[in-house]
Amino acid sequence: MSDENTGSTGEIQLDNGVFRVTRWTIQPNGVIPMHKHEYEYVVIPMVTDAMHVRNSDGTSIVADLEAGVSYTRAAGSEHEVSNPDGTDDIVFVEVERL
Amino acid sequence: MSDENTGSTGEIQLDNGVFRVTRWTIQPNGVIPMHKHEYEYVVIPMVTDAMHVRNSDGTSIVADLEAGVSYTRAAGSEHEVSNPDGTDDIVFVEVERL
């Protein structure tokens, strides 16, 4: 999944019925558009950077990513994530528990 | 879990009954001693390097890790992993599906 319009790329590395693993890249000023997570998941940042998260309820946060420091989110999370002030790509690996 | 004798460190970042996420660091000439995996898991390398894997059946391979390129292994895998020729730490994040 690569989308010049959004400036983000999702490369599925594994989808075996147990895990789905996607490596996401958000270019400077890119966005992964609003989406809802069907499965509980873990994010492993590959970079240390600030990623902007706008939730479907309108609230926003800045997620301070740290390379190698994971975090988890529940199924049902619905948000858009972006790299508005970025000078570098934001890259993270998402592991979903199918 | 940090062990000066083995030269490896396992930092559990999450253990919530759904996932267990551990960040492993193997120093140059360090080893994570022989262990058996109870759960299916995914590895996300944080570095690009060669990691030596000795299986419990005596076979050995060199796993060419690439930063951000994940791989999965089945429950029951039993091996020792080491960094024998290393000049740098080998670091990876392991996500187990509990």
Supply database-style keywords:
globular, 0% helix, 98 residues, mainly beta, homodimer, 6-stranded antiparallel sheet, 4-stranded antiparallel sheet
Question: Short description, anyone?
Answer:
2 copies of one chain form a homodimer. Chain A has 98 residues and is an all-beta fold. In chain A, 0% of the residues lie in helices and 59% in strands.
Portion of residues in helices of chain A?
Answer: under 10%
SSE pattern of chain A, N- to C-terminal = EEEEEEEEEE
Summed over residues and divided by their number, the pLDDT of chain A gives a mean of 95
Oligomer: homodimer
Largest sheet of chain A: 6 strands, antiparallel
Radius of gyration of chain A: 13 Å
Number of helices of chain A: 0
Overall number of strands of chain A: 10
Task: Quote the distance from N terminus to C terminus of chain A.
Answer: 19 Å
Gross geometry of chain A: globular
Low-confidence stretches of chain A: none
Protein name (chains A, B): Cupin domain-containing protein
Organism (chains A, B): Brevibacterium sandarakinum
InterPro entries (chains A, B): RmlC-like_jellyroll (IPR014710), RmlC_Cupin_sf (IPR011051)
